[in-house]
Design goal:
Blueprint (H helix, E strand, L loop, with lengths): L3 H23 L7 H17 L23 E3 L8 E3 L5 H13 L10 E8 L2 E8 L2 E7 L5 E3 L2 H4 L12 H5 L2 E9 L2 H16 L11 H9 L4 H5 L4 E11 L7 H10 L9 E4 H15 L7 E8 L2 H7 L1 E2 L2 E2 L2 E5 L4 E13 L5 E12 L2 E7 L3 H7 L6 E5 L7 E5 L13 H5 L10 E2 L8 E2 L9 H9 L11 H9 L6 H4 L4 H5 L6 H14 L4 H7 L7 H11 L2 H5 L3 H5 L6 H12 L1 H12 L22 E5 L7 H10 L3 E3 L8 E4 L5 H9 L2 E3 L1 H7 L7
Parallel strand pairs: 2-13, 21-22, 21-23, 23-24
Antiparallel strand pairs: 1-6, 3-9, 3-10, 4-5, 4-7, 7-8, 10-13, 11-12, 14-15, 14-17, 15-16, 17-18, 19-20
Helix pairs in contact: 1-2, 3-10, 14-15, 19-20
The protein binds 2-(butylsulfanyl)adenosine (IVH).
């Protein structure tokens, strides 16, 4: 009787591979990492090799997968878009094996000199064919199944670095030049896009999603039907190969092709290099592996191409893959592993982050045992449970994260996670109440200054120039004071003596005395500064000043109810709630009392007696660049004293942008929105004369 097991397994694998290929290629929404797909693929290959009679024509091992999405027009490639053989052996041997194969195919003896290769990065995006006729971009298409791709001209035209017209006479004279290359998304652009998507989803937007990784995001954007939407999601492009060419004498080497592309105005990655022999390949592979995390985009390995095109032609193709090129993989940036538990970490600002405790897994070149789950909403949306098999992604210097769960592998005892329940409503560091405001995704510790996790940040904020303005208290010193256990609370700052300060490493008596003088000086302040210094969430400088002006006295702020707080200029329900919760915590009240007992004082009717002219009332300013006479802080103070507002970002609500030297993107944005741009002199002219010192 024939063995039924391999038959069944092969059928099951084909079905799974088909399913995941469809999710990946057609829907841009993969559910398993590439490495897992590769494992299934290799298992099927192994079965088919052992039982050739089981091989079917439509097996995923026999064809390039990739279907055409509804709505995008099919494009038949004049020259098929092939793939390259992948060397999965990530050690140097992978490169050596390739060189040996090439030498053998070229019938080179052991004495023949080393071959030259053009070594390139393997960009992790999607392959695109750009068709230029007489130098004009006429069409852009995806690879699809290699024979037929999809017309994505409308979205690819939105990529700013893809030239609409090639430079130079040769390009314009050529009837056809098809340029092939990779469309991808930089990591920073990807993070920013997902951040925006999260905000949209939080805001209740329908039909929006976050993307699993940059490649996936790039594919999603390119295959968008709506070009306008694509334009807002920045993509990048590198050229690396040719398709159909009519009327152009193609350079004789791969590196020469790169140079010709550059001349035509096409973006070509600068990391490509001509190297000699297997040693050169290995050195390139190692050098890139060492730099991988620092690159601004994802790569999944490197590509070696025989540099000489005549030799390339001599070698030709084998089962639809060129014999003259190979992709040498780097360790995968996504892997699956077991989610054993979920811990909660308290960040410097009190934000509570669920952290996955993983069965250690090798991913992106290191062993990972912790990965962020971002927040409860993300856990719910991705339906991640304890004991699930999850997908971990680690790329670049971004902290490892869980991007999804493998539902098929969910065990019966998988446990949903509820952050609030797990913590019993208390901060795991200080035991204060945890809160989550309406419309926010993050739970937070309300402990503020009292919470050890938030202490350093709280002290730095308290001492900041626009808060208590303690001279001589910077980053490093705060670290030392907190780590040495000298300062636990804000009032303890005011109890420091020269003796315990001078005991700190690198602290001279002179700087110790400077700090103590700085602290002494800071005691004379204003109510607005003091309220701002407390670091109450949502209470920025302006709100703090408004509170001071409205209530006049600290004691009245302390006992204010939420409805009373709502009466303050620009204070909405979220801010009112935050202030109220802060002062409702007994330890925060205690800290306030202790600070007062240290001798911090201000004029209680602070602000109310302000009768200076307010010519800028109702006007919003944004400052950018450096000014000649005013510091940024001075400019801000003077605008506010004149009744104006200063905002950090340019929007339609901005009235004026004041631009100094080396003004950046804010100036661009202002021009774009048609907002009046002032120089420093124009600002000074609008301001009332400065108070005499
Ligand atoms: S050359 C015939 N060069 O890898 C050779 N491909 O499996 C054509 N890729 O679909 C490809 N970086 O999306 C080439 N520097 C590079 C590449 C590269 C990434 C991708 C491309 C292609 C796949 C090959």
């Amino acid at each position: 009787m024939p063995d039924k097991a391999p038959i069944r397994r092969a059928a099951a694998l084909r079905e799974q591979l088909q399913h995941h290929a469809n999710l990946y290629y057609t829907l841009d929404a993969p559910q398993i990492p590439d490495a897992e797909y590769d494992r299934l693929f290799q298992e099927l290959q192994a079965i088919e090799a052992a039982h050739p009679e089981l091989q079917t024509q439509d097996s995923p091992t026999q064809r390039v997968i990739g279907a055409v999405l509804d709505g995008l027009a099919p494009v038949r490639h004049q020259v098929p878009m092939l793939s390259i053989h992948t060397e999965t052996d990530t050690t140097p041997t992978g490169a050596e094996k390739f060189d040996a194969r090439v030498r053998k195919a070229l019938a080179l003896g052991v004495d023949a000199p080393a071959l030259a290769y053009n070594a390139e990065l393997k960009f992790d995006g999607l392959a695109i064919n750009l068709r230029y006729e007489r130098g004009e971009l006429v069409q852009a298409a995806t690879r699809g199944d290699g024979e037929t791709g999809e017309d994505v001209t409308h979205t690819v035209r939105m990529i700013s670095t893809v030239p609409k017209r090639l430079r130079g006479a040769v390009a314009v004279q050529a009837a056809v030049i098809e340029v092939r290359g990779e469309v991808f998304m930089r990591r920073d652009d990807f993070e920013a896009l997902n951040e925006r998507q999260r905000k949209l989803i939080e805001g209740g937007a329908k039909g929006e999603k976050t993307f699993v990784n940059p490649r996936n995001a790039a594919a999603g954007v390119v295959r968008q039907l709506d070009a306008g939407k694509a334009a807002k999601r920045p993509l990048s492009f590198f050229a690396y190969a040719l398709g159909e060419v009519v009327g152009w004498a193609v350079p004789g080497t791969q590196h020469g092709l790169g140079a010709a592309f550059r001349k035509m105005g096409l973006p070509v990655n600068d990391d490509s290099q001509v190297v000699q022999g297997p040693e050169g390949l290995v050195r390139f592979h190692e050098a890139i592996a060492a730099r991988r995390d620092a690159l601004p985009f994802d790569i999944d390995g490197v590509v070696y191409k025989l540099d000489d095109r005549a030799q390339q032609e001599q070698l030709g193709f084998k089962s639809r893959e060129p014999r003259w090129a190979v992709a040498h993989k780097s360790p995968a940036q996504e892997q699956t592993t077991l989610l054993q538990d979920i811990d909660v970490q308290v960040g410097r600002t009190g934000k509570l982050t669920p952290v996955a405790k993983l069965l250690p897994v090798f991913v992106g070149g290191t062993t990972v045992s912790n990965a962020t789950l971002h927040n409860q909403d993300e856990i719910d949306r991705k339906d991640v449970r304890i004991n699930d098999t999850v997908i971990v992604r680690r790329a670049g210097d971004v902290i490892p994260e869980i991007v999804g769960t493998v539902i098929e592998k969910r065990p019966a005892d998988a446990q949903p996670f509820d952050l609030y329940k797990k913590l019993g409503g208390k901060c795991p560091v200080c035991g204060s109440e945890i809160t989550r405001e309406e419309g926010e995704v993050d739970w937070r510790c309300s402990g503020g200054l009292f919470c050890a996790a938030q202490r350093k940040q709280a002290i730095l904020h308290f001492a900041g120039r626009r808060a208590m303005d303690v001279e001589g208290l910077g980053d490093k010193l705060v670290d030392q004071l907190v780590e040495a256990g000298i300062v636990h609370t804000l009032p303890e700052l005011y109890q420091l003596g020269v003796a315990n300060l001078a005991a700190l490493e690198r602290m001279a008596e002179k700087s110790a005395q400077n700090l103590i003088d700085g602290l002494e000086k800071s005691k004379q302040t204003t109510l607005g500064r003091f309220l701002y210094a407390l670091g109450i969430r949502h209470v920025g400088e302006t709100t703090a000043k408004d509170l001071a002006k409205h209530f006049g006295q600290l004691d009245r702020v302390l006992i204010a109810t939420e409805p009373q707080l709502l009466e303050v200029n620009d204070v909405g329900p979220i801010v009112a709630h935050s202030i109220h919760t802060f002062f409702a915590q007994p330890h925060n009240r205690e800290i306030v009392e202790q600070l007062r007992a240290c001798g911090i004082t201000w004029k209680e009717d602070d602000g109310t007696a302000d009768t200076s002219p307010k010519p800028l009332l109702g006007q919003t300013f944004v400052l950018t660049g450096t000014f000649q006479t005013l510091s940024r802080d001075e400019a801000k103070d003077r605008i506010e004293a004149a009744g104006g507002k200063v905002s950090g970002s340019v929007s339609k609500k901005t009235h004026f942008v004041v631009a100094g030297a080396e003004a950046g993107s804010k100036l661009e944005k202002a021009t774009e929105l048609g907002i009046t741009v002032l120089d420093e002199a124009a600002l000074l002219a609008m301001l009332p004369a400065a108070d005499p010192p």
